[in-house]
Amino acid sequence: MTELSQDASALVTELCAAGGTAALCQHCHTALDTVSGVGLTVFTGSAGRFVVGTDGILIDQIEDLQISLNQGPCLEAVRTCRPVLVDDLAAASATVRWPAFTVQARRHGVAAVFAFPVLVGGTALAVLDLYRTTAGPLPKDDHQQAAAYATAAAVLLTDDARARATAQDGASVPAGAARTQQALGMVMAQDGSDAAAALHRLRRHAADHNQSLAHIVDEILTGRLRLDPATGL
Amino acid sequence: MRAAQDSGIPYASPERVGAALLELADTVGDEFQLSRFLHRLTAHCRQLLDTDGVGVMLADPGGALRLLAASSEDTRRLGMAELEDDDGPCLEVYRSGNAITHTGFDPAGSRWSNLAAPARVAGFRGCHAVPMRHRNHNIGVLSLIRRIGEPLPLDQQRLAQTLADIATIGLLQRRALSAHRTTADQLQQAFTSRLAVEQAKGVLAERHKITPEQAFQRLRRHARNTNQKLHNLAQAILDGAITLPEQSPPKADHTRRFRR
Q1: Rounded Cα distance, B45 and B53, in Å
Q2: For a Cys-Cys bond, which of A5, B15, B86, B132 suits B140, CB 3.0-4.6 Å?
């Protein structure tokens, strides 16, 4: 790992005290109070997506759109290993790059998206996504802070992955993230869908019912909710 | 052994030397291949230095030298003979860390007479071998073999060491990069494993009408009883390759405790 900046180093200490990776998105959202939401997603291999944390109402839909449409700033940040800052989703520069994503994201009320890759050894292990409901550039201080959060995320996720190197069930993850995956497994067993489709359905259900993904996950896990295979909802 | 002098022969124009150094320093690209890199190193040596054969030996993870590149079959045979006998100028250079000029690959020569036969077949009379080392990393030896029994001119000796130095730094950089990549892959794998385990818990919970925590206990027990890794079992369940029996099998731990 490259040497940490003082900002990121202090942040890692602070986040560890606050609960580690599980606290990162909320912490970042509080620090950058002009943004409307923050999400942290680990990219596992070609198709795997592990949503490690979210904070903010629309972030699940933003992440879902990018994955189901297979386009958007977060995917580009992972591919290029550089931050992708989109001040205004209505601007021609954005609509040309991501025609479907920009239209649908704006329909949800999102005006700007800022994606920061979480780099470990030159590879993007995850992406830290920020969105805002108003257009305009990310202020310089916020940009620096977001970059520091991405660096801190690299340190925390590395620790998470190594924490249980001897255990056989893989990286340590926040309880909420684990519960989401368990709910996906239940939906997969209910109707034979794959993990990506199951996640998409849970997120759509949450959006359509104006509820958080975490709430829908609870409903599924307790058996109070079963998605109807016929309609996919 | 005669004293070496500057050659004064313009084998190497500054432009050609510069281009060679630049190429050897660039090891960070995705397209890097060790065999091609070493081939380019031997080619540059042949072009820039008054030599008849070039060999590159690198240490394996256990510290033993291996011949990884040779500019000709004769050169390769000479290098292999040295490694088989565990005796010769390259091994000496690797152990001492200092360059050696040897001018007597002939039966009369007192040192390394074991190499006289393969050297004579190829018409080789001597060699100049330089260490490939940087700070405390000693990674191998570059050897320049000659048909004339005279030391390599001093200016060429210096250039040979420079080429070896740059190639060494390039290779060390590459190793550091590969180590990083491995780390990133391993981290990704840890998350992939966890993803599979959590999803499999959900699948089992739904299928057997149990809680995710109970599903995890069954998963762990089955993995232990069938001697497979938890995340492999989880993945097999997700792939539909394995289903667990309806009733959990008797606990192996209990019977063991009873027998003791």
Answers
A1: 9
A2: B132
Is B224 within 8 Å of chain A by CB? no
What pLDDT shows up at residue B160?
A: 96
For every residue of B189-249, DSSP letters joined together read HHHHHHHHHHHHHHHHHHHHT--HHHHHHHHHHHHHHTT--HHHHHHHHHHTS----SSPP
DSSP letter at A169? S
Q: What is the 3-state secondary structure (H, E, C) of B80-130?
A: HHHHHHCCCHHHHHHHHCCCEEECCCCCCCCCCHHHHHHHHHHCCCEEEEE
The sheet with strand B53-59 has its strands ordered as B65-70, B53-59, B137-146, B126-134, B100-102
Q: Buried (b) or exposed (e) across A111-120, using 16+ Cβ within 10 A?
A: bbbbbbbbbb
ipTM of the complex: 0.87
- Interchain CB contact of B186 with A (< 8 Å): yes
Q: Which residue has the higher pLDDT, B65 or A168?
A: B65
Nearest to B184 among A121, A170, A172 (CB): A121
Give me the residue from A42, A121, A186 closest to B202, CB to CB: A186
Angle between the A6-18 and A21-31 helix axes, to the nearest 10 degrees? 120
Provide the token pair at B118.
């393969």
Mutation target to probe the B interface, by most B beta carbons within 10 A, among A46, A168, A180, A184 is A168
**How many other C-beta atoms can be found within 10 angstroms of the C-beta atom of residue A166?**
6
Instruction: Write out chain A residues lying below 8 Å of B177, CB-based.
Output: 121-122
Q: Do A169 and B230 touch (CB under 8 A)?
A: yes
pLDDT value for B257? 41
Which residue of chain A has the CA closest to B193? A170
- Per the CB < 8 A criterion, the answer to whether A52 and A126 are in contact is yes
Task: Tell me the one-letter amino acid at A37.
Answer: G
From CA B230, how far away is CA B216, in angstroms rounded? 10
CA B88 vs CA A183, B78, B91, B110, B143: distances in Å: 66, 10, 6, 12, 11
Per-residue confidence band for B4, with pLDDT thresholds at 50, 70 and 90: low
Distance from CA of B202 to the nearest CA of A (A): 4
